[in-house]
Amino acid sequence: MSQVSESSRTLRAPALSVVLITPDSFETIRRTVTCLARQTVRDRIELVIVAPSDAQIDVDEALVAPLAAVRVIRLASLTPTGPGRAAGIRGASAPIVAFGEEHCFPSTTWAEALLAAHGEGVAAVGPAMHNANPDSIVSWADFLIGYGPWAAPIARHEPEYLPGHNSSYKRAVLVDYGEKLETLMEAETVLMWDLRGKGHRLVLEPAAQTAHTNFGFWSSWLPVMFLNGRAFADTRSTGWPLARRLVFVAASPIIPLVRLGRTLGHARRLGRGAPFLARIIPTLTIGLVLDGIGQMAGYALGAGGAHAKLAAYEWHRMKHTRRGEASAS
Q1: How far apart are the two ends of the chain, measured CA to CA in Å?
Q2: φ/ψ of residue 209, rounded to 5
Q3: What is d(CA 244, CA 222) in angstroms, rounded to the nearest whole number?
Q4: CA distance 96 to 203
Q5: Under a CB-based contact definition with an 8 Å cutoff, are residues 35 and 20 in contact?
Q6: What residues are paired with 61 via a beta bridge?
Q7: Residue 322 CB contacts under 8 Å (≥ 6 apart), including other chains
Q8: pTM of the model as a whole
Q9: On the CB side of 323, how many CA atoms lie within 13 Å of its CA?
């Protein structure tokens, strides 16, 4: 895959590189960049924009002026997105790399809290998550399934894995994966399991907070649940022998039951009472069953184009929510 890197400008050596992917223009990531420009340590942040080679990236120089540096990295294609994130890591100049999304909005102290936690010698630090569009039962189901383990309020701890696409890492730790990095960045849970297996520490830092926009329509969320399950299983089982894959195929029907219990536990921890649980259980069950079917397909047959299809849903997330439902943190 051809790649061209171009530095827009550098004012000072950054402490944190934030990687944002856009499929088409600067406008797509403007709201998230605005949040970066309001950070308490904005002058220590490098913005790394990853975009297709044919995209028109007209950086708003006035908006990014408070940042330490801005860099644009171009790839021939952003489908799937793993290679794009890996290119952002390799093109970053700061010792710590964080990932953001065009539909996720960090609080003003997010970067400062991440940097402070990284000073303790950990490999990765994740933020506490908020639901940016909480006015739909589908959005709550999507949020609890995807980000329930780290939903605020939450205590600081060292979990098994951190929020995907929204966490931060020591850049050197990621670069050491070499060519495997592209695949691992497709499903960061697998990456984090591997980091822990190698003895690295992962920290959930509640002082770093961000608001995530979730799918709000059944028509979007249901296919995404299936595709997420299939993509995850494909990445997780890379290099497995056939016998092990078949064992996981056979165990796939159990996955929705296990995850339902855990997800309801997250809802209870957030103080959600019986009326809310009664409303959301059917929605959670449907979504988790589709995820389980997707995992079964992924273990048995591979991704089957799931990564590329997921990327199409990820872009312009606001199209998949009720108009005006999501707001920046």
Answers
A1: 36
A2: -125, 145
A3: 28
A4: 14
A5: no
A6: none
A7: 133, 135, 136, 216
A8: 0.91
A9: 0
Q: Does position 325 have pLDDT exceeding 60, yes or no?
A: no
The arrangement of strands across the sheet holding 202-212 comes to 3-10, 69-75, 45-52, 16-21, 96-99, 168-170, 124-131, 202-212, 104-106
Q: What is the pLDDT of residues 13-53, one digit of tens each?
A: 899 999 999 999 999 999 999 999 999 999 999 999 999 99
CATH code of the domain occupying 3-133+151-212: 3.90.550.10
CA nearest neighbour of 46 among 97, 82, 87, 4? 97
* Residue 236, token pair as written in the block: 């997780």
48 class by beta-carbon count within 10 Å (0-12 exposed, 13-18 middle, 19+ buried): buried
Q: Locate 23 and state its tokens.
A: 């499929």
What is the overall mean pLDDT for the chain?
93
Q: Write the CA distances from 286 to 50, 215, 222, 281, integer angstroms.
A: 35, 15, 8, 9
φ, ψ (nearest 5 deg) of residue 225: -60, -45
* 3-class SS string, the chain: CCEEEEEEEECCCCCEEEEEECCCECHHHHHHHHHHHCCCCHHHEEEEEEEECCCECCCCHHHHCCCCEEEEEEECCCCCCHHHHHHHHHHCCCCEEEECCCCEEECCCHHHHHHHHHCCCCCEEEEEEEECCCCCHHHHHHHHHHHHHHECCCCCECCCCCCCCCCEEEHHHHHCCHHHHHHHCCCHHHHHHHHHHCCCCEEEEEEEEEEECCCCCHHHHHHHHHHHHHHHHHHHCCCCCHHHHHHHHHHHHHHHHHHHHHHHHHHHHCCCCHHHHHHHHHHHHHHHHHHHHHHHHHHHHCCCCHHHHHHHHHCCHHHHCCCCCCCCC
Q: Tell me the two tokens of residue 246.
A: 């078949």
**HSE toward the beta carbon, residue 1, CA cutoff 13 A:** 20
11 close to 85: Cβ distance less than 8 angstroms? no
pLDDT at 1 over 50: no
Domain boundaries in the chain? 3-133+151-212, 218-320
Which tokens in the block code for residue 149? 């383990």
Going by C-alpha positions, the residue among 147, 166, 43 that lies closest to residue 101 is 166
